Amino acid sequence: MIGTQLPDSYYDVAHYHYVIAHGGIIAFVVGYLLGSIPFGLILTRLFGAGDIRAIGSGSIGATNVLRTGRKDLAAATVLLDAGKGLLAVMIAAHWLPAAEGVSAIGAVFGHCFPIWLRFKGGKGFATAAGVCLALAWPVMFVGALVWGAVLAASRISSVSSLSAILAAPVAAWALGKYAVVPVLVVIAAIVIWKHRANIARLRAGTEPRIGQKG
Asked: What distance in Å separates the CA atoms of residue 205 and residue 207, rounded to the nearest whole number?
């Protein structure tokens, strides 16, 4: 999905870079604002499940929503968090061609660091899955396979998420989706950074498995 026709003349090149630069800023802001919508927090408060920032990891993502015992809200959170990432890229593809990758990064960054919650958001995996689906669905398919296989084997959400997010840029390269590789590397770096506490717990052997409330 990423890509546009390259200009021919010097004037066109200058105009092209001007449009790309300004379009990139707009795309990032739009992606950020969409990504910063805290669906996990909104749903749990709306349906009486409390403030998920006060339980488990304190994250606003689906895994922490699951710790409330509301599987329906966790599933809805996954879909909405992925959907906002998908929408961010689709908007950029329609209105700001060649800025889809920037909008994708903005969406994941917004989810992880929402201004409305003092920059304390989720881990970014579901939103990353949504932008990956929009940017290159075959890469998303590979990531989903990795995620499912690792989750089935480990029963640890963070392990499956980290495995899939690391597999994404590798899969993009292997499948010839070279344009999205840098975007996926940046997104992987953001998601890994947000998982640094999980990584510490994994090293200590204290990372909870799916179904645990701790």
From this structure: 6
Closest alpha carbon to 81 in 45, 24, 121, 141: 121
Give the whole-angstrom CA distance, residue 191 versus residue 194.
5
Virtual CA dihedral for 195, 203, 75, 100, nearest 10 degrees? 30
Q: Which pLDDT value is given to residue 13?
A: 47
Average pLDDT per consecutive 10 residues, the chain (214 residues; last block may be shorter): 44 51 86 96 89 82 85 94 97 90 97 94 95 96 97 92 97 96 97 95 88 53
123-141: string of b/e by CB count within 10 Å (b at 16+)?
bbbbbbbbbbbbbbeebbe
Domain boundaries, the chain: 10-204
